[in-house]
Amino acid sequence: MVLALAIVGAALYLNGAIFSAWVSGGPPNDYPEAWAHRALLNLCFSIAVLLGGIVAFRVIGSFPKIGVLTAVLGILALTFLAIPYGRAFLDSDRCLDSGGRWNELYYRCER
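RE: above sequence
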């Protein structure tokens, strides 16, 4: 059941990622950068939820012993959770270092 819920959650996040990517490049809008960041966020969450479900499925089957593959998949899931936040931090830091002002709402550097 855990794996099935993870697959459903990953599919929902993937659907949000596809929609956000379409909005960022499709119809004209005021903040395509924010939609592109949201697409990346949802894509990474989709992968992390799927990997987390696989990890939970493997841990439930072999508890209390955790294998190397399960640990690697868990670390990958945590890495995918951190990617969008690290990218947002680096983008805002790059903007501030160059003398700009970071607009969080539009996910854009204003000079």
